[in-house]
Amino acid sequence: LSYVYTLTSDYDKLIALSDRADMYFNKNDVLMHNIGYGFLQKNLYNKALEYYGKSLKLDPDDKGTLNSIGYTHYMLEEYNTAIEYYDKALKIDPRYERGLLNKGLAYHTMDNFSEAINTYEKALQINKNNYYTYSYLGDTYYQMEEPEKAFKAYENVLRMNPDNDYVLNNYSYYLSLRREHLEKALEALDTLSRDN
Q1: Which of 36, 47, 108, 193 is deepest in the core (most CB within 10 A)?
Q2: Distance CA 24, CA 92 (A)
Q3: Cα maximum dimension of the chain
């Protein structure tokens, strides 16, 4: 049932399971994780951590739960703690792409751009077709004032997903700020406005 509520984004019903889950199903790590996710989606971060902790106690090697705990700490702006949990997940599975992406995002948020780039590059070694990685890479390169590398990363996204609103918006905006390749900026804006 918790899985259905998760899939249908019915987080209120998912959270409502918490009382019964604690009493009758407290040995089910997946249920505890899903309830934690429900609390996370409702921005109830401490409750999310409580249920993720229950899940982790039942299955201490669950990289998904470790990643979710990391992400919850990220949302609490506890970036170093988030990275610690991402590292724990990556110790279990060094090829865990989601853990790498989230770790890179935490580094980016902390303005540690070189570590963010290194982390995204590791993710690309695992999956060269993840446009989220290229998108985050582009944002980071732009923050580092390396626009050509940023634009190359954005172009990789658009080759894979030509209608990516986020990248079309950023790419056209950054191109227009630099007053370079304005035809590309106009093309990106045209695609963006046509899709919306």
Answers
A1: 36
A2: 30
A3: 63
Q: How far apart are the first and last CA of the chain?
A: 35
- Give CA–CA dist 185/176, Å, rounded: 6
Strand, coil or helix: 161: coil
Number of alpha carbons in the 13 Å side-chain half-sphere of residue 114: 0
- Number of neighbouring beta carbons within 10 Å of residue 83: 23
Among 50, 31, 30, which residue's Cα sits nearest to residue 40? 50
Radius of gyration of the chain (CA): 19
Instruction: State how far the Cα of 122 lies from the Cα of 146, in Å rounded to an integer.
Output: 19
Report the predicted TM-score, pTM, of the whole model to 2 decimal places.
0.82
User: What distance in Å separates the CA atoms of residue 145 and residue 185, rounded to the nearest whole number?
Assistant: 18
Interval 87-143: pLDDT, tens: 999 999 999 999 999 999 999 999 999 999 999 999 999 999 999 999 999 999 999
